[in-house]
Amino acid sequence: MVVFLTLMIIAVSVLLMLIVLIQNPKGGGLGAGFGGGGSGSLGGGVQQTNSFLDKATWTLVVVLFVLCILSSAFIDRGAATTPTGETPRSVNIDYDGE
Fold first, then answer.
1. pLDDT of residue 67
2. Consecutive H or E run containing 65
3. What is the distance between the alpha carbons of residues 45 and 47, in angstroms, rounded to a whole number?
4. What are the backbone dihedrals phi and psi of residue 77, each rounded to the nearest 5 degrees, phi first?
5. Which pTM does this prediction carry?
6. Which residue has the higher pLDDT, 94 or 9?
7. Which of 16, 18, 19, 91 has CB 3.0 to 4.6 Å from 60, enough for a Cys bridge?
8. Distance in angstroms (rounded) separating the CA atoms of residues 57 and 50
9. DSSP assignment of 11-46, as one string?
10. What is the spatial distance between Cα 16 and Cα 69, in angstroms, rounded to a whole number?
């Protein structure tokens, strides 16, 4: 389950990065190529494109947040083990102070 959630988190993160990179902070973004100064039918398309990108961004942020919370529920919080499966011993090192 942890592997599945991790893959989902990676996929959602990549999609979120792509959608954020498509957007332009000045309001141009993907819709910059549609409609310059005229008010035609394409002008409404620009607003709809920006609205869609905004909704997609926030949806992916919420999905990423939920996946991160879910993945934390499945992480084993048991005792730490070494790669061989042994429980590590604590080692006290006494320094002379030199």
1. 95
2. helix 41-74
3. 5
4. -100, 20
5. 0.58
6. 9
7. 16
8. 10
9. HHHHHHHHHHHHS-TTS-GGGGGS-SSS-SHHHHHH
10. 17
